[in-house]
Amino acid sequence: MLDQLTGHEDPHPIYERLRAQGPLTRDNGMWLTTSHALANKVLRDRRFGVRFADGGYPAGGSLLPDSFLELDPPDHTRLRRLAMPAFSPKKIDEYRARVEKVADALLDRDEFDLIADFAAPLPISVISDLLGIPDSDTAEFADYGALVAASFDSGVTPEMSEAHDKVLALFDRLIAERRRTPGDDVISSLVAAEAERKLTAQEMLGTLVLLLVAGFETTVNLIGNATRALLDHPAQWRLFKANPDLAPAVVEETLRWAPPVQLTSRIAHERVDAIGKDEVVTLLLAAANRDPEVYPEPHKFDVMRVHQPEHLAFSSGIHYCLGATLARMEGDVALRALARRMPDLRQTGPVTFRDSVVIRGMRSMPVSRS
């Protein structure tokens, strides 16, 4: 049934047909679950990981072989720990004023594309600053992020490989500069860790590419999906405009109702009940986030909803999204800015969606301030 999914149509009717088959079912020879409880359990269970017993990775054509996203402990633990300081709540708070300034500047216009002109440039600016990437080098990052997202569905294409090579060349140049003149940024801290032999040069590159993509790819779609949900639900939009401090609640409900990452997978390191060793389990995070056993009226977009337990938009367990705090802050700032600067915001043309089943978001959404 999963082969019927597209990046353009509402996936939830298919998710509901799968849900009717029970919490754990088989689809084209693959295990999958729509259950919040079971997905959360698998994500937290150390008997599951992201690699096969022989160390192989299921994507086959992955471009990030040395990023902690695609590693199990102990390597995952070692590399993630090196990147964590840059994404601490204290560090993220320091960036809030900059994000507010960028958001305001981006909204100095009347008609624009919500994605290309606002949702994408905002997090790109922030993650570039955090990584210490010069503004002159940020132009191609949005296209690169979209290509990486597409690779989750279609594998690595020649276009993807070419863009990847350009980004690696950029990081090679910046790493060489930081070796000569360290600064107060993530690249400098990883260069120092490499000098102390806490990670290899290849692992440093993999980590930087992951942070670059993860640092803005999820947020672009969070901002886009939230804005579309609000405009499609006028009562919720009015409620938010009257109560801008509901911004964090809007972010959480969007992450539950329209999560940027729709699904992920785990591999059993040993037999776990019916699941055999090295068998893959696909966790339908978007379906789990609308599990009726967890959320009353799960298909209703309700910014006043109580999120107990937490949605799985940022995964769970040891692979819980490192950039979750950053994404939440950027979503909060972006939505407040839209409500304050553009209370009469409206959609002026058809939405187009990205060609990705794993990463669900819009390619384009034309809007006007009145």
From TrEMBL:
GO molecular function terms noted in the UniProt entry: cholest-4-en-3-one 26-monooxygenase activity; heme binding; iron ion binding; steroid hydroxylase activity
Top-level taxon in the UniProt lineage: Bacteria
Listed SUPFAM superfamilies: Cytochrome P450
Keyword field: Heme, Iron, Metal-binding, Monooxygenase, Oxidoreductase
InterPro entries: Cyt_P450, Cyt_P450_B, Cyt_P450_CS, Cyt_P450_sf
PROSITE patterns named in the record: CYTOCHROME_P450
Any single GO BP term: cholesterol catabolic process
Similarity section: Belongs to the cytochrome P450 family.
PANTHER family per record: BIOTIN BIOSYNTHESIS CYTOCHROME P450 (PTHR46696:SF4), P450, PUTATIVE (EUROFUNG)-RELATED (PTHR46696)
Protein name: Cytochrome P450
Native source organism of the sequence: Lentzea jiangxiensis
Classification of source organism: Bacteria, Bacillati, Actinomycetota, Actinomycetes, Pseudonocardiales
